Amino acid sequence: MLRLGACALLLAFGLSCSSSDVSRSLGAQCDSRSDCDERCLRGEDYPDGMCTTSCETDRDCPGEARCIDEEGGVCLYRCQERVQCEFLGGGWDCTEKSPREDDVEDVLVCFGQ
Amino acid sequence: MFWSIALSIGILTFPSVLLAQEAPGAQPAVEIPTPSPAIDPEPDPEPDPSDSQELGVLVGAAIGGGVSPGGMAVDGRYLYRLSGLDWFEVGTSFTLGSGDAACFRDRQSDLVCQHGLLDGFGAEVSAGLRRYFAGQQQFRPYARVGVGLKLVSFSGDELRGVAIPVSAGAGIRVDVANRVLVVAEASLRGGPAFLNRGLEVEPNLGLAIGAGVEFTLE
Question: Cβ(B142)–Cβ(B172) under 8 Å?
Fold first, then answer.
């Protein structure tokens, strides 16, 4: 009960009780761009849709997301194994992709199966 | 306090009533000593019928967040004196903040709203009580409680609803001129908000601070 009350107070003042990194800039489900701050990725590569941010380098991405050479350069969650992508829901896997930046080795990111 | 005043009035007027009931010209059989009136160490200021109403306007800031609007706050109020210390007040207040979108669906498809402290729009009507405390010279502190009905809107997210906030606050009033008072006030609000987009009932909390002017009506 105490935790619920504390969460209610935090939520009311714009803070989050959740440990999830999902936000309007990266990770939220979406149907259209208006669901996100910038871009909504749709299709079988992005199950349930995913908000993301355009990028040229990893520094353009929130948190520890990586800038991948897909859709003109988008941020995706980095991973080392599939279980790390389960928070996105079903249909996601940990897949090797080419980074947007040249001269950088392929990286593992959460991507549709 | 009321009973103290009533008792004093009763003690003072009772001998006169007795005298008025005797026959004209008759001398009272027993001289009734006039009691000295009971003195209240801090009597309530007697309500003056000519200054029992006030109008005021306050401008300040409201801090919200989550699904509670925040931003610039404009507050209009009407006060009616109930007694020497207590006033009834009704008012309308508007909170004008940013309309930026801040809601999203998490990976379980639940809507999450993380508005900033100064986002959203609110329009509230409220009623409450204000009680003054002893002050110094022209300064008088007060406390107030109230309950309101508030329309809440976050245009960027098409999120709307109604809140029922209970407020409690404190302030100070300064007499600056004939029938002109300057007030500064801070209040906390909290209550349930009933919102659309599947959010149902969410807490509506906020802190408001402001300053303004109140006018005593003729």
Answer: yes
Using a CB-CB cut-off of 8 Å, the residues of chain B touching A112 are none
Asked if the C-beta of A21 comes within 8 angstroms of chain B's C-beta atoms, the answer is no
Instruction: Dump pLDDT digits (tens) for B49-68.
Output: 557 999 999 999 999 988 99
CA distances from B76 to A113, B58, B146, B152, B207 (A): 59, 6, 14, 18, 17
Rounded to two decimals, the ipTM of the complex is 0.80
CATH class name, domain B52-216: mainly beta
In angstroms, what separates the C-alpha of B102 from chain A's closest C-alpha? 7
Using a CB–CB cutoff of 8 Å, tell me whether B199 touches chain A: no
Alpha-carbon span B210 to B190, nearest angstrom: 18
Per-residue pLDDT reduced to its tens digit, A64-93 = 899 999 999 999 999 999 999 999 999 999
